[in-house]
Amino acid sequence: MQYELDATNQTLGRLASKIAILLRGKNLPSFNPRILPQTEVTIKNLSKARFTGSKLDTKKYYRYTGHPGGIKTQTLRQRWEAKPKELMTQMVYHMLPENRSRNKIIKNLKFE
After folding, report:
1. What InterPro entries would the database entry show (predicted)?
2. How many C-beta atoms surround the C-beta of residue 94 within 10 A?
3. How many Å separate Cα 62 from the centre of its chain?
4. By the 8 A CB rule, do 38 and 107 touch?
5. Helices and strands: H and E segment counts in the chain
6. Which class would CATH give 2-52+84-111?
7. What are the sequence ranges of the domains in the chain?
């Protein structure tokens, strides 16, 4: 099955949860958690998605380089402007169950 979602004027978190449900096949009557569904989700107009509140400037992402004093900080706005597809993929990835099939399921997420 193929699904095509339009991200125009939709909030990113709600869109990501819809995508996670579709990728797992939980919307199908034949849902079985141990069987991988053959569904593919394509997202259009990702750049037109919106954020609520002041998340763009207040939400921060941290990463550690491994060196003393090596904590790097990035705001959501910086990440969104640099790589929106990667950010969306990461959001959906973390909404999927933590098991061996997660890496296989996320490959069915496509962007236009």
Report:
1. Ribosomal_uL13 (IPR005822), Ribosomal_uL13_bac-type (IPR005823), Ribosomal_uL13_sf (IPR036899)
2. 11
3. 18
4. no
5. 5, 5
6. alpha beta
7. 2-52+84-111
